[in-house]
Write the structure tokens for this entry.
Amino acid sequence: MPADPISTPFDARLLNDLRAFATTGRVGPALERLDAETIARLLADWPLIARSEQLPPSGDWTTWLLMGGRGSGKTRAGAEYVRALALGSAPHYGGAVSPIALVGETYDEARGIMVEGCSGLLAIHPDGERPNWISTRRMLEWPNGARAFVHSAESHEALRGPQFAAAWCDEIAKWPLARSAFDQLQFALRLGERPRQVITTTPRPVPIIRALTKRGDVAVTRMATADNAGNLAPGFLDTVVARYRGTRLGRQELDGELIDDRSDTLFPRDLIERARVEHMPAGLQRIVVAVDPPASASAGADACGIVAAGSDGFGGACVLADETARGLRPDQWARRVVGLYRRLGADRIVAEVNQGGDMVEAVLRQVDADIAVTKVRARRGKWLRAEPVAALYEQGRVRHAGSFAELEDEMADFGPDGLSDGASPDRLDALVWAITALIGPADPKIRRV
């Protein structure tokens, strides 16, 4: 017979050893008196081993907004919340809750993180409770009959038909057209006595997050990366966390803080959101692909900024794509640029040549000798080059066809001294070249060569 694992009150040493075993596999002294079956049973008791902020808050809420830093354990908390709902394992659930919506930014991300990820639903269940994943139906089915269905925020019209009793939304801060997707989900939450939802996300100061934090029926929990240090590789803590600790980016991505716009940014979030449209406009007169090549492909080098935009012929422009990438050799970024040029049927490639001169055009023509290339050279700083483009946004003359999360983060974080983390604004540079080539006001300090 296994030894009785629990004393009254619960042995704190045993709890500490359980948590350590869950993260490192190390068997502490308090676990040595327990057999493997008992340890497995205790490890499956999420309320026992979870941190307090990973458990649903008390109170009269309909939405639990869990904002956490990278690796803070928010995905595990969301998955465990769904597990408890599906199994009806917490007294206040009053039995199994079904069906449940699982909504990620894309279907692949929802499946890869929420279902199949290392902290996803398949991984956290003991063998006897684990649901069956039916990929053809994008559905999880538990042994008790409870079901959860995977949906994509980018295909939010698919939420019009079904109805749910609960939901888990992951990384809502980077959903494309987040308000439309979230609203469709709210209309679908109409089963059961009291539909509730959990939202797990790294915070970004986008309108959907701002709106949720102001609502009275939303319970907000914040978690920091450091809170989950036992589950993270030491190298991550020593390098990434140490590097960004205390910076504006670190406060958002590691501490889970909702950091609002810089007071000195050229591109406030609200300005960017007002520019958003759902689809690429019809009848674009010209399309350009702008490239801001890096000086090197070595580790830690700047990214290769690659942004495409089109003009409507009436003084307006629309951002169509951001394919910026890091660590590419010249032949690789050239293929990426030319591939986007061909795919969009672009008229011209606009290439900054400060870093490479004629080599930039030569590399591009090695991929396709027939492309049209305009070389440009910057004579002014990045802030001064971006100011005329910001004015075009303020005039309502620039649109974004969909969501470009990383580009928009860079825009909102760009001030007179550059980005808050000191990195090069490569995406923004490419955007500035594209818009300037299409509709930007003449700037005598930016010349074609």
DSSP finds 16 helices and 18 strands in the chain. The domain at 52-253 is CATH 3.40.50.300 (Rossmann fold). Residues 330-344 form the longest helix (15 residues). The mean pLDDT is 83.
